[in-house]
Design a protein that fits this description.
single chain; alpha+beta; 32% helix
Length: 469
């Protein structure tokens, strides 16, 4: 039956009703049921009308996350108190050994991929096989931290709703959020049929070499997956009202390194600008100035992190130190610069590298130069598929009574492991807890966000895992 509605503005507004914009609807008698529904709906907030209710399994997941909070915090403290700097191979393996039984208790098959050939410990891969034909989820996190065994920052410390410690957020907090979500799924019965691979690298903070070997297995898992979810930290940004809001991360920029080496004619300084040319330092300076002027574009940054020049100049084996010798009366024969390049798409990265190479190949008086680019973290472009995945997360937010998460500006998100699979599978970043001071001795996690992120992840993964491929 079609509902016919006539409307006119109320002259008198009953107590308790908002006066602005309120209309009273007159309906035929046969639509009394519709009239009653409409009247009741006027008393509900807009969010209650728009948001679907949690299903019974989803309510169980929310309750399970809350009930398991003491267990999750105890695990987080245990993991943080075990040093696992990227170069502390035994420490990284010790964290993996702590996590193995956590996954096995949930029905995962766990294997350790040793990576000594790359100078790193290895990766933990936990696989849960569910119902055939449903979507495969790839969960990404990491075992290592930037704090090595000789760091003075070694201990988990709780201060009310916050905690500090090495990796307490990045990424041990993320791994705990992942496990909390999986335990909640198990409690609700939604993990039983889910096809999930949890891939925890042991060298995210300092990738092993060669990178092709260090990331080969992760890339292979990405090619088999339908969705990738990265459990690094939740991003927060300032909203229109000046308050922090949770953001959705659908993109990460690349992180590549480059090195320019310049060789020039040397001689007595009295001959500079003449037949002997300008020397290596002037030439390198002009190259860098041209790169700064001609290469940048939106979402692209270039940084010169180190420079050295003189009669002799050399880059150390660790590529983090350089040495130079020279005199004021000698035209410098060598100059070296090293920096990084960050881009938002493979096309932008190719374009930038071609421009940089063309600048270095130009004629500079008395000098020749070469530029090399090293393996790094590829970009994760903000694709339509990633935007659709964020929309699914916002469906979860609506069901939980939370505001929608806008997409984060990719300039505010660093590189990460999900970028290695981004070309093959849609993904989201930032399902770990919120924090501040990451990579410093002030690294602090917001413990309330750990629970929140576990709930979001449990509902999102349960919904996605139930869908057909």
């Amino acid at each position: 039956m079609q509902l016919r509605v006539k409307a006119r503005k109320l002259r008198e507004v009953p107590a308790g009703f908002p006066s602005k914009g309120l209309w009273f609807y007159h309906l035929p008698m046969q639509n009394r049921l519709a009239s009653a529904f409409l009247a009741a709906s006027l008393l509900l907030p807009a969010s209650a009308l728009a948001a679907p209710a949690l299903t019974t399994p989803e309510k169980r997941m929310v309750a399970a996350v809350e009930a398991n909070e003491p267990r999750d915090l105890a695990l987080l403290e245990k993991l943080v108190n075990q040093n696992s700097g990227s170069r502390n191979l035994a420490g990284v393996k010790a964290v993996a050994d702590m996590l193995r039984p956590e996954f096995e208790a949930l029905g995962f098959t766990v294997k350790w991929l040793p990576m000594e050939q790359t100078g790193r410990a290895g990766h933990l891969v936990a696989t849960h096989s569910g119902k055939p034909g449903t979507k495969r989820l790839l969960l990404i996190g990491h075992l290592d931290t930037v704090f090595e065994a000789d760091s003075p920052f070694q201990k988990f410390t709780r201060n009310g709703a916050f905690a500090t410690g090495p990796g307490v957020a990045d990424d041990k907090g993320g791994v705990v959020a992942m496990l909390a979500a999986l335990r909640a799924m198990a409690a609700a019965g939604t993990l039983r049929n889910a096809n999930v691979v949890a891939y925890l690298t042991g060298d995210e903070e300092d990738a092993g070499d060669p990178q092709s070997a260090a990331r080969a297995d992760l890339i292979a898992e990405g090619k088999k997956a339908d969705i990738a979810l990265d459990f690094e930290g939740l991003a927060r940004d300032v909203g229109p009202d000046g308050k922090l809001i949770d953001m959705g991360s659908i993109a990460r920029r690349s992180a590549y390194s480059w090195t320019i080496e310049v060789t020039a004619k040397s001689g007595h300084s009295s001959g500079v600008f003449g037949a002997d040319g300008d020397g290596a330092i002037y030439a390198l300076s002009r190259m860098l100035a041209a790169i700064r002027a001609e290469v940048p574009e939106p979402n692209l940054t270039l940084n010169v992190g180190m420079i050295a020049g003189g009669a002799e100049a050399a880059l150390a084996a660790d590529q983090a130190h350089a040495s130079a010798t020279g005199k004021t009366n000698i035209i410098p024969a060598k100059a070296i610069a090293r920096g990084d390049l960050r881009t938002l798409s493979p096309e932008q990265n190719t374009r930038a590298q071609e421009r940089m190479a063309a600048i270095v190949a130009r004629a500079f008086p008395g000098a020749t130069a070469r530029i090399t680019f090293e393996d790094g973290y590829p970009p994760m472009a903000p694709t339509d598929a990633n935007r659709a995945l964020l929309a699914r997360l916002n469906d979860v937010n609506a069901a939980l009574g939370l505001p929608a998460m806008p997409p984060l500006d990719p300039l505010k998100r660093g590189a990460g492991d999900i970028s290695f699979v981004a070309a093959d599978v849609p993904g989201l970043v930032g399902l770990g807890p919120a924090s501040r001071g990451d990579h410093t001795p002030n690294e602090t996690v917001d413990l309330s966000s750990l629970n929140l992120q576990a709930k979001r992840a449990a509902l999102l993964m349960s919904r996605l895992a139930a869908e057909k491929r």
